[in-house]
Specification:
The complex is a heterodimer of chains A (325) and B (126). Chain A starts with a helix and ends in a 12-residue tail after the last helix. In chain A, strand 9 and strand 10 form a beta hairpin. Chain A is α+β, with helices and mostly antiparallel strands. Chain A is 14% helix and 22% strand. Chain A has 2 domains: 93 residues, no CATH class; 197 residues, no CATH class. The N and C termini of chain B lie far apart (43 Å). The chains are: A alpha+beta (325), B mainly beta (126). Chains A and B meet through helix 1 and helix 5 of A and strand 2, strand 4 and strand 7 of B.
Chain lengths: 325, 126
């Protein structure tokens, strides 16, 4: 019975998490809100630690905060004019623009979402189609009730590559060293190493990896092309279940359009699953954030995910008492 | 001193124009229907991938229904002013959901929460 399930879920929740003991009044608009309306970035909001109660009849706003709860916006949105793109330099803290959630891609990546129209354009091989159909997803054409979803990420398996850039692409800090470009992702708080020391992709992959083996080459002063292979087959390419084999090769092109913007294009090649290459992203824009932007944690915690699955399973039970008539 | 909290299921039905853009898990189990409940918070779970507000609603017959109200991920909610301490057990709230379980289970997705003071906590991503 659903009520029993909910009750037991609450019991699980009670055991899993400590009870909330302190009320925190949300900031209201009458003197209790953010710490001001300035245009700079990195501004403290004043939301935390407010002792005053909420303003009656007011309502909250949607303002982008960093991990330290400081008001943030892409540098360009603060009115600064971008200079020319620096040479061979992607370093900085980046987020999708114009809206920081533009890289969520729940229903598939921007240029190849999983809907009827785009699925018809997907160049699946027979095996690719068959594998795709075996994937039960939360979104897209293979959408299934939660209890039937077989998404490996739903149990907090590593999100893997390229899904890390094709689902919940949030903030990413790019760090460059003499020999590497490091990508530090907000989602799942993971990182990739892209070697730029001139090495080639391994001729033979003896150990597939969740994030594969990546090499990067500057093809012009402002464009880095990254090639990745050796990817673990158990991951999905995106949030809608596009499959891949161990023959997958992903090519990312990072074009520094100007001082404050990067355009990302992703090409998928996998002759086992696809008859020809396809592009989940074309010139997807990432905007530079303030250098004091703190990337918030976004972690798939196994215990929390289990609780989530348990709580929502109630909604998929076939014959709940409430609906019986 | 034990004042019985008079909570009631307020409204059903009103086709919702949009649903929150929840990621990760999908919409297969939900239908877009605006449902408003009024009740008492039993727990506020500040968890990934999504948060949950657990609310007890007492119906007209005195029966308590345990609602599971799914909200956005903490990383999104912080931008709306939510924190891990926004709610505590016993808080009286009105919860407006944009979608509810198709099967009639007391599970839904939050559009906004109205506090006892009248302050509105939106969380719908547009």
């Amino acid at each position: 019975m659903p009520r029993r399930v909910v009750a037991s879920a609450i019991a699980i929740a009670a055991l899993t998490l400590p009870p909330v003991t302190h009320a925190q009044a949300p900031a209201g608009p009458q003197g209790q809100g953010r710490g001001g309306q300035g245009t700079g970035t990195g501004q403290a909001t004043g939301r935390r630690g407010q002792a005053a109660g909420p303003a009656p009849n007011g309502q909250n706003e949607n303002i982008h905060l960093d991990g330290w709860n400081r008001k943030q916006a892409p540098v360009e949105a603060t009115g600064k004019k971008p200079g020319p793109a620096p040479v061979h330099d992607l370093s900085g803290i980046w987020e999708p623009v114009p809206r920081y959630r533009d890289g969520v891609f729940a229903s598939g990546p921007k240029d190849m979402p999983s809907d009827k129209e785009h699925e018809a354009m997907m160049p699946y091989t027979p095996l690719g189609k068959q594998t795709m159909l075996s994937h039960k997803t939360g979104f897209g054409t293979n959408i299934a009730p939660i209890a039937e979803i077989n998404d490996p990420f739903d149990t907090c398996d590593p999100i893997g590559f390229p899904r890390i850039i094709l689902f919940n692409l949030r903030a990413v800090q790019i760090v460059q060293t003499k020999n590497q470009v490091l990508m530090l992702y907000q989602n799942t708080r993971t990182f990739r190493t892209i070697w730029t020391d001139g090495r080639e992709i391994p001729k033979e992959i003896t150990e597939p990896r969740w994030f594969g083996y990546s090499v990067g080459k500057w093809v012009d002063p402002t464009t880095l092309v990254v090639t990745t292979t050796g990817l673990d087959e158990s991951t999905w390419i995106d949030n809608v279940g596009r499959p891949h084999s161990d023959q997958l090769v992903v090519e990312e092109t990072y074009h520094r359009a100007d001082e404050f913007n990067i355009e990302l294009t992703v090409k998928i090649t996998d002759p086992v699953m696809y008859t020809q290459p396809w592009y989940p992203l074309k010139n997807f824009r990432l905007g530079m954030n303030s250098p004091d932007f703190d990337i918030r944690e976004m972690i798939c915690a196994v215990s929390q995910q289990a609780l989530f699955n348990q709580l929502l399973k109630t909604a998929t039970d076939p014959a709940p008492e409430k609906s019986e008539k | 001193m034990k004042r019985l909290f008079q909570a009631s299921l307020l409204l059903l039905v009103l086709l919702a124009g949009s649903t929150p853009l929840f990621a990760h898990h999908g919409n297969a189990s939900y239908e877009n229907k605006e449902v408003t409940i009024k009740g008492k918070v039993t727990q506020w779970l500040w968890t990934n991938p999504h948060s949950f507000l657990m609310v007890d609603v007492t119906d007209e017959n005195g029966k308590i229904v345990h609602w599971v109200c799914e909200n956005q991920a903490p990383s999104t909610l912080v931008n709306f002013g939510f924190t891990a301490k926004t709610f505590k057990a016993g808080d009286e709230v009105t919860v407006v959901m944009a979608a509810v379980a198709k099967n009639g289970a007391p599970v839904g997705r939050i559009n906004k929460v109205i506090l006892a003071s009248g302050y509105v906590m939106n969380s719908e991503v547009r």
